[in-house]
Amino acid sequence: MSRYSIMSVVLVLLNILLATAPAHSFAHKHSQPGESNLTVGNFIDFSQWLGIDYGQPTLRKRYDYVIVGAGPAGSVLATRLTEDPAVTVLLLEAGRAEIPLVSTVPLGAPNLQATDYNFAYESEVQTRGCLGLWDRKCSWPHGRGVGGSSIINYMIYTRGNRRDYDAWAAAGNPGWSWDEMLPYHIRSERANIRDFDRNGFHGRDGPLSVEDCPFRSKVATTFVESAQQAGYPYRDYNAGDQIGVSFLQANTLQGRRVTSGNAYLYPARKRPNLHILTRAWVTKVLINKATKEATGVVFVRDGKTRSVKARKEVILSAGAFESSKLLMLSGIGPAGHLQSLGVPLVQDLPVGELLYEHPGVFGPVFIVRKPIDNSISLDGDINFSNFIQYLKGRGVFTTNSVESLMYVKSPVAASPDSGLPDVEVMQAFSSIDYDTGTGTPRAFRLTNTTFDGYFRPIMNLRSFQYLPMLLKPYTRGKLRLKSTNPFHHPIFQYRYFEDDRDIEALVYGMQEAIRVTSQEPFRRIGAELYRKQVPGCEQYTFGTHEYWRCHVMTLTATFHHQVATCKMGPPSDPEAVVDHELRVYGMRRLRVVDIGVVPFPFTAHTSAVAFVIGEKAADLVREAASKEDYRSREKYSSLPPAPSFLWSPFDWPFK
Ligand SMILES: Cc1cc2nc3c(=O)[nH]c(=O)nc-3n(C[C@H](O)[C@H](O)[C@H](O)COP(=O)(O)OP(=O)(O)OC[C@H]3O[C@@H](n4cnc5c(N)ncnc54)[C@H](O)[C@@H]3O)c2cc1C
């Protein structure tokens, strides 16, 4: 048997094992019934044998910095800070190490949501959205493990619009404008994008690989051509301006998923001054109440509660939900809410008072009547030849299914600026019926009625779909603690489409997708709008405005880009939790460094932004350390020098 075929068999077996094993984990026993953090795939900890080995550090009592959470921002920060061998960092991560063979296959992304790499949150029961989904709740997955959500996300690399960054800075946050943040994008990136990587906006030497998806179907090329005919210019949407169309730029390396773990931490994991502790769930920030200084954290590992001290700073990089949760559990949050739960108040701040999401919709769906390829079903595509292609860095396994992006501006957009889109239309190479298993329907909570009534009838046809995503929602929500149990999920008080303009913007995006698909290049491949009514919308005549509104409210998609729970803003901003240097207001030696600080919805999928928050935070922290003498508080001891940071792709199985 060749090396390739052995690896293929291993890959299939691992996927099956991970996706089907029953649920169990150390946090499970702390969760309430019906509220398991887990779905399936947690019974056996495969990561102990197959995961990347981050070592079993013997913990010190104190580190210079204790960072909570190894998502994109936390991983970058830990890696950059420990470039200085005199700086010691402990990175505590609630989840496990990545299993490269399982997590790196882009086409398998939806299946990862059924594993322990997902906190598996869900929205509250909805009345105006998610109506065709289980219990009328949208799925709010959230990554857990070394890599955070970059382990389970769709790898779409978008930085956002220059106007977003400029508005961020103009809101009283110096240092966050486009011109100031672009160098961080360039510093983090290793671009391999055929048409654009030499246009001056991309980096070539950073740890984070960004490349054209190696797989590109005929639908994608037809879409990009048609969108141009419909008036959308072909452009690099990562160069500051976005209205237009382009192929997907993805966080992959030769078609394999790139995470913050394997891009940043993996090459740095042997530094003696960086300790990475997995399965360490932080439950509280230790605070000196007299001085309002963060002094360390408490965490639970293997059922044991321990604490560790920070000589300089405690930095929360636990993501948009968990950093807010940790602050509140530690007494930092809205006074009334904390008092109602009996949490002693340390600092009254609007933590979790604001929460934005990027809602979207599955559809419109099209059927392709002319033969363009054989990609009818996932079952059909799981074959030996595609495995070989994948191992060579090519083929259908290298796509997350989204192939190109179009940025449009709807008539209900709040900003009059014609250069700021409010809807992104993603073109996927297939529609949901392609996934003949349960991965995608389960990931998005589609009910059997929805799947059987709408997608199953086209299972044997070549179809594809659009995913319009609302970039600038009007709807705002809140995040609250459910209880003082740190293992309980938070409550998301988020009501989809509470503001009706959010539905209107998405309907506009769908209609633009239909207009583009009516162009001549699509006629050449026989693209035809799928006209079946979504179950629940039968009372509306197909194609009317009312019908599309119902479609949006029923087949609601959610894209997991929640922000603003620890909003950054100036002292005058009543919603601000952190200042422009990511320091928690009213506290000392405590920062939040993750996507939750972004003050408003970005015209981007949020991962690239999280990476540069980590990059910039590293500079801010280093600068603060150079000014402030933390040594006066604790005796300073430096560890032996670390090897210098060299970027390298994962050693295995890619070498
Ligand atoms: C399913 C999905 C698909 C997505 N698709 C895309 C996409 O295609 N493109 C894109 O740009 N963005 C995408 N995103 C969003 C993007 O991945 C996130 O915005 C980004 O990862 C946020 O990074 P972060 O550093 O803020 O933290 P996170 O990625 O949220 O990581 C936080 C880490 O902290 C850990 N943690 C949390 N609480 C604790 C605790 N108490 N103790 C210890 N550790 C803790 C978590 O386990 C996690 O590892 C997607 C997200 C999801 C969930």
Topology readout:
Layout: H1 3-20, H2 47-50, E1 62-68, H3 72-81, E2 89-92, H4 100-103, H5 109-112, E3 121-122, E4 139-140, H6 162-170, H7 178-188, E5 189-192, E6 208-212, H8 218-229, E7 244-247, E8 249-250, E9 252-253, E10 256-257, H9 260-268, E11 274-277, E12 281-288, E13 293-301, E14 304-316, H10 319-329, E15 332-333, H11 335-341, E16 347-348, E17 359-361, E18 365-368, H12 378-381, H13 384-391, E19 402-408, E20 423-428, H14 439-443, H15 448-455, E21 463-470, E22 478-480, E23 491-493, H16 500-517, H17 520-524, E24 527-529, H18 545-554, E25 556-558, E26 590-592, H19 607-627
Parallel strand pairs: 1-2, 1-14, 2-11, 5-6, 14-26, 15-16
Antiparallel strand pairs: 3-4, 6-8, 7-19, 9-10, 12-13, 13-14, 17-25, 18-21, 18-24, 19-20, 20-21, 22-23
Helix pairs in contact: 3-9, 3-19, 7-19, 16-18
The protein binds flavin-adenine dinucleotide.
Notes on the protein architecture:
The chain is of the alpha/beta class and 655 residues long. The protein has one domain: FAD/NAD(P)-binding domain. The strands form eight sheets. Strands 1, 2, 11, 12, 13, 14 and 26 form a seven-stranded mixed sheet that branches. A six-stranded antiparallel sheet has the order 7-19-20-21-18-24. The chain has a three-stranded mixed sheet with strand order 5-6-8. Flavin-adenine dinucleotide is lined by residues 68-74, 92-95, 141-145, 148-150, 152-156, 281-282, 317-319, 322, 326, 560-561, 594-595, 605-608, 610. This is Glucose-methanol-choline oxidoreductase N-terminal domain-containing protein. The active site is at 561 (proton donor), 605 (proton acceptor).
